[in-house]
Amino acid sequence: MKMLLLVNVVHNEEYLNIGASELQIELRDLSKGKIIKFILLSCIRFIPNKMLYKISANRFSLIIISSFLFLSGIAKAEWIQTSGPGGGSCTGLSIVGDTIYAGNGAYIISGGYPTVSTLFMSIDHGETWIADTSGFSGTINSVCAIGDTVFASTHQGNLYRKIGSVWTRTSYFRNYLTLFSVKGVLYIAYEGGIDKSLDRGNTFVTGGLGLGPYEVFNKLFVVDDTLYASSSEGIYKQVNTLWWQNKFPRNVTGFVVRDNEFLVTTYDKKLFKSSDKAETWDSSATIFNFLPADIVSFGDTLLTILRDTSGTRLKNYIYRSLDDGVTWTSCSYEIPTEYFLSGLTNSGSDIYVMSSMGASIYKSSDYGGTWREMNIGLANVRVYCFLKYNNAIYCGDVGPNGIHKSTDNGNTWLPSGSGLNIPAYASLFVRSIAANSEFMYAGTNSDRGIFQSSDSGASWQVLHSIMDSTIVIDVSTVDSLVFAGNYAGMIRSSDNGATWTSFPGFQNSLKSIISFGGYYFGASFRQGLFKSDDGGLTWSRSDTGMAPAIDITKIIIRGTDLLASTENGIYISSDTGNTWNTLNNGLPVNPSAQSIAAKSDTIVISINSFNNHYGNMFISFNNGMNWISYDRPGYLYKINDLLIIGDTVFAATETHSVWKRGLSDLTSSTVFQNRINDNVLIFPNPATNNLTITLKESINGNLIFKLIDMSGKVLRYERLLSLENNICIDEVRNGFYLAQIVSQFDVITKPIIIRK
Length: 756
Description:
The protein has 756 residues and is mainly β. Helix content is 2%, strand content 46%. The two termini are 39 Å apart.
C-alpha cells in the first residue's frame, strides 16, 4: 500500500539548534487531511535520515520539511525454512489425544539418532506438521498429557511442561526418560526405576522399585486399576504403591493389551499371549522368522515390526496377521527395507511408524494394507548441493530419494530421484549435481558412483562406478565434457559418460571445475587451484596469492572476475586466475568459507565455524570489499551450499533442509541505507549554482540523483556514472529541497538548501 504523506518537524521553542530538547514529528495523510502518526522525540539524533533536516543556520522559529515518502511495508529480513525436502530422522513419536508429537532431525551417514532435533506437532492426523519449539530444546523421547498440561521428555534427560503454547523446563533430570499418564498421575520411567508426580510435575516420589540398573520401562497399561509395564527384562505388575513384581521373566520387545488379553513379543522371535492378566502364558507361542520389535492390535488383526539381522545390512519390515497371529505376511512394500523402523503406534484405525534413519514417519489408514509418507513440514534433512536447471531448482540431499526438485522458487519440493535408490542402510548421499544441454549428472557416496538422467531428473540410471573411493566429491559439466572426482583424483568423459579417461597425474581430490576465459579451472581439496588450457588434459597450479595447499570449497564467475571460497576466506582474481587477492575485510579471523554465491556486486558467503558455531552468513554489496553479517538460517549448523535466483538466496543446511531469504530484504534495510550514507557525499550545502555528488567507492545499482521541490516535482534527474558528478542547479530558485539517491534496492533522501 502506498500513501502520499506530509512530514512536519515541529519545535515548540523559539529556537531550534543541534541541542534541541524536544521535537514533534507529524505524518499527515494529504488525501484525508488528518494526522495519522504523531511522534515526540527527545533528541534530534534519533530522527531518521528521511525526516531530519540538517541544521546549518542558528535560529528558526518554525521548520516545516515536506517530502514524499512511499511506504511499501518492507518486512523484517529473515530466513524461512522451506517445506522440503521432507523427511529426516524421527527421534520420538507420541500421540496425545488428537495431536501427534514427533522429534525430527537429520540423519548423517554414520547413523544413529541426531544429537539435536526439532519438536514438531500435527493436529490433522499427520498430514502436515508445524514446529513446536517455543521454550523447548533437545531431542524428544516421549510425550504425554494430563488435562491441558502436556509433558515431554528428551534423550538428554530433561522434562518439559507446556500449558498453552510455551514449553518450560522443570528441575527434574534423569537419564532415558519415558513418560506415562494414568488417571491424573504422571509416571516417569528411567534407568533402574520409575517415579511419579501427583501435582503435574511439581514434585516427584518413587513409584516403583526392583528394576535392574540399566532397565527402563517402555510400555505401561492400566487393567482393572492395576498397572502393568514392560521393559527389556519382562512384564511387571504393581503389587502395591511402591513395589513391582515381574510376571514374565523374559526379554520383551513389544507389549499390547487387547480386551484384557496380553500379547508380548520377545527377543527369541516369539509371540506370547496371556488371558489371565500375565499370571500364565500360552505354551504354543508363534515363532517369527525375524526379530520382532513392537506390536499393535485391532481385534484379530495384529501388526509387528520385524528386523532381519542375518545379512551385512539390517532390513526392516512390517508384518501383519489377519487371523490373530496364526499366519503373517509382509505389508510394508511402500517402505524401503533399509529404514530402521520403530515406534509402531496407533490412533483409532490410523497406524504410525517412525524411522530413525532418514525416512521420518509413515502412516496406514487401512490396518497396515498400504503406507504413505507423512513428511509435509518435517523438513530436517541434510542438503548438500544446488543446481539451477531448466527453470527448476534441484538439490542433492541425504535420504531415500537423494534429489529433490522445486518449480515454484523453493516453496514446495518433490522427490526427483527415481532410480537412485540403492540397497544401502538409508545412506544415499548426493554430493553434487551437474547438467549440460542433454543430460543431468549426480555424484553419490554409494559404490555405484555417478548417475545420469535424460529427462530432467524424472528418472536416473547408473553411469559409472567411481575409481578407488566410494565417495564422489564432484560431478561437473564443462562445455561438452563431464568431469568427476573423488579423494583419489579425477576422470573425464567427452561422450556424455559413455566412456571415461582417468588422470593419474591429477593427484588432487576434485571439488569443482568451471570454464572461464578460455581456460578450465579445477578446485581441489587441500591442494589449491589448478588451471588447464587443453580441455583438462594437463593441469598447472594457478593459485598465486592463495595460501599453500588450501582447501577450495567453491569457485564461481562474477562478471570479469573469479571468486573462490576457501578455508582461508574469500579470494578474487581479475587476471584469469593468474594472481589472487583476499576479500576478508569484515569477516571473522581465519574464516573458513564453505560456499559462495553472487549477483552483480552483491556476494553472499557462508562461514563454517565462528565462535564455535556453524552457519554464519555474510554479505557484501561492493564486490567483496567489505562484509556485514547476513544472519543465518534458524539453526546453528553448517551451510553446505548457496544459490541466488532472482531476488532469493537459498541455503542448503547440514541438518535442517533448505532455507531461503529475499535478497532485497536486507538491501532495503538500514544496513544498505547506512552504506549509501557513508559512501555518498552531496556538497556544498547550502548550494548556489552547482551540486557535487562524490562516491567514495563504486556502488552497484545504477545510482540516480533526483532533486525534488516541496511540492514533489522532480527538478533534476541525473544518472551517476562516475565517482564524482557535477549537477548544474543555476536555474533552481532559493529554498528547501530534497536530494534523493536512488538505487535498485532503496531510496535515500537528504535535505538541501539552495541559497544564491
